[in-house]
Amino acid sequence: ALLSPARPAPAQERGTGETRPTPVSISGSVLDARTTLPLTGARVSLRPLDSGALPVRQPRGSGPAGRLLSAATDGAGRYTLPGLRPGRYRLDVHLLGYRPATMDVQLRDGAPFELSVGMQVEPIVLEPVRVTADEAESYGRTRSYAPGAGFRVAAERLRQRRYLESDVRSISHADVEESVTLGEPDLFRALQRLPGVTSRDDYSAEVWTRGARWDHTQVLFDGVPLFNPLHAAGGFSGVNPDALAGVLFLPGVQPVEHASSVAGVVDLRSRPGGGPGQVRALADASLVSARVALDQSVLGGRGSWMLSARRSHVDLLTRGIDALRDRSVPRVPYAFSDVVGRFDLHLGEGWKLEASGLRGSDRLDGTVDEVVEASRARWGNHAGRITLVAPFRGGRARHTVGGSRFAARADVDGLPPELLHPAYGRPVNREDTYRAQPLRSSVSYSYLEGAWEAAPDSAGITRWSAGYRLVSQGADFRIEGLWPYRSDPAALTSRRDVSYGVVWGNRAWTPIPELRLEAGVRAEVGGGIRGTGPARLAPRLSARFQATPGLGISAALGRAFQYAQAIVPTGPGINPVALSGILWGVADDEFPAARTDIVTVGAERWLGDAVLASATLYGRHTIGAALPDPTPGALRDRPLFVPGEGRARGMEISLRKLDGPWTGSLAYSYASSHLKAEGRRYRAPWGRHHALDATFMGRVTRSLRVGAAYTTTSGTARTLYFEGFARCEEGGECAWRTYPTAGPPSSRTTPGYSSLDLLADWSRSFGSWGVGAYVQVRNLWNRANPAAYVSNDLIVSSPFCVYQQAGTSWECSRWYVDQAVMQHTDRWLPGLRRVPLLGLRITF
């Protein structure tokens, strides 16, 4: 113990003839010896050492016969023991968690004493108690959203404790419903309502994060990266949201555990099974697809399983109509499906086995009027992992093996070889529809991982975590046809592989109660990669200052490397749309790894119990991006990619009401994104300067809710592309007269986008069953928003022929000789006009 000396106060005069001793007192403070902070509730006891030393009067709290006096320190750490006789005493101080302090004192007649004690911490060793729990289900598909439930508020507060950066967003099923997505709840389309996120047009569920293209936002499924997880050539999300327990969107600085994306991370966590032993079910049917999700607890609660499946049904509906000989409705030979499964088994003593997997596929066999012609194609994702969780050194260890693969193939029947390649000509009268090119493509990722994290402290903060990952990636494709434009008619092939190892560590600490800091580093070693050395370091630092209980201010900076990038087609037509995310390259000695540095500054403030306001400033610099060659001129014999760099900066503001009879959000984003390649600097075609999003959901009756979502954005940058024309002699030999050409990069801007979408949702419970129905109206104002830009026509003043297909061959149907053709109007795919959409829902 640390003592301050007992010092007598000035003696008081005693009256003449006084024979009775004057009472004295002892008082002081009890402090923490290390921090000097006062200790409340410490028990201070005083016992006389002389048998004749008795209290003049017995204060409250004294022991039997007045032999023991005691008092507890107050909120300021103070204590007082009054009414004592002079003499020798022993003072004892006790407080749980501190080493007891004992000392002898001499109290003199008429002299009050002051004595302060400093106590040293003495941790109490207790028997270990192991508590295991599954991670909180923040997505909440199986929860109720009654007003006042506070589920979304709790999810956001949990997110604030786990992630210091204010731009991280936790997405719930209620957020997806509130976003009024196309036809059915669609996760990626809901992300497009967030600040800083835009997309190409109505037909695309791609996520453009702060002016970066789709492949630069990584989607993780239980830690496994997915490549292009979309259906319908990008029209719908490739993951059924009914299978999810948690969704996090990290558009800025990424945790070192999975800092492997140029722009952002969408972290999806599958949902474990549950329930009291009976099978639980969710079922939905919309105009887009039918979905079902089943789950159950088994083995007396030690195990559980979950299975979720979805399939589109437009092919079945149009096939049935065709069978009824009603040819007014064209048959659609296209379908997509996906299935997600998970199994959990608790092995006891903190040990647990988890396994989850995903399979998604798309199939096209034939012609879809005004969309695609005479094509047969297959594409989709496969992913899975097995994880063993075990207690280790006071924390938790995870050992995982997993992998994923995206593959696509397309075959073409009935198309002569001379029309598959520009060197031999092609039909020039084709409409703005797509014909699949002969194609084989795949990208794969497999890994072995181990990670450890310390047990959370009393504030729920994990102070230490570390891990490793061994990775093998590969990508290959073989393509021939109209793209790329080359003189050589042979098929173009590409094969790239890379293997590397990763070690990472993260440390969190709280120097003062209002300030939290996190620092981490990720080291990646291996692979001869263009533009980098054998070791690549990706540090990270973030901080959050809690200025008031409701106001948090954050700042973060970090680095990340991305090894797989999509090869983006260039040129006219809708190749860039149809082939988006299909062709991939993996970093090697020729293909670069993209490196990005990100810095963010932001603030969040709670306005009451359920309203959260936030603002973020960000900057991002990327080098090693695989970009299309931006050089103006003929597109023939261009490289598949050129290395380049990108810079983005912007501001985001949002206001969200998360609970109550009505909920909603309002978000505004300003973004500036530029690219530099081949000595040219130009606007990124994946960014929009301004975007405003608003959502609303309100309860009209106990069973009926209505909602609305509004989006308006400025246009995107675009490059003028001019279609080429084939020249054919009367003998039938054809060759390109004019190759497709490109103008200066990003020299034009597309029109802006605006859409108001409405939703009415009805639901009712009947015992353990629940039923519901909803209707949407997409683009209420019927605004003519153009979709993807196709091309501009080129001036031609030489003989050429227009082809038409005759059976399995092509014939020249009409000759144009020395006739000038001039068209300068832009050609666009038509956007989605006003359309009503219906859906049904059942739970039991």
Task: Please provide a written account of the structure.
- Helices cover about 5% and strands about 50% of the residues.
- The protein has about 850 residues and is mainly beta.
- A hairpin with a 4-residue loop joins strand 15 and strand 16.
- The end-to-end distance, rounded to whole angstroms, is 65 Å
Number of helices: 5
The 3D shape can be described as elongated
Radius of gyration: 35 Å
Helix percentage range? under 10%
Q: Regions with pLDDT < 50 over 5+ consecutive residues?
A: 1-16, 52-66, 144-148, 416-431, 795-800, 816-823
Topology:
Elements: E1 2-3, E2 24-32, E3 43-48, E4 69-72, E5 78-84, E6 87-94, E7 101-107, E8 113-114, E9 117-119, H1 151-162, E10 169-171, H2 173-178, H3 187-191, E11 197-198, E12 208-209, E13 217-221, E14 224-226, E15 230-231, E16 236-237, E17 244-250, E18 264-270, E19 280-286, E20 289-298, E21 303-312, H4 314-323, E22 334-348, E23 351-368, E24 372-392, E25 395-411, E26 439-454, E27 464-479, E28 492-512, E29 515-525, E30 535-548, E31 551-562, E32 564-566, H5 575-578, E33 584-586, E34 594-606, E35 611-627, E36 633-634, E37 642-657, E38 662-677, E39 680-683, E40 690-699, E41 704-713, E42 717-718, E43 721-722, E44 725-728, E45 734-738, E46 741-742, E47 748-749, E48 753-766, E49 769-778, E50 789-792, E51 800-806, E52 809-816, E53 826-828, E54 835-843
Parallel strand pairs: 2-8, 2-9, 13-18
Antiparallel strand pairs: 1-9, 2-5, 3-4, 3-6, 6-7, 10-17, 11-12, 13-14, 15-16, 17-18, 19-20, 19-54, 20-21, 21-22, 22-23, 23-24, 24-25, 25-26, 26-27, 27-28, 28-29, 29-30, 30-31, 31-34, 32-33, 34-35, 35-37, 36-46, 37-38, 38-39, 38-40, 40-41, 41-48, 42-47, 43-46, 44-45, 48-49, 49-54, 50-53, 51-52
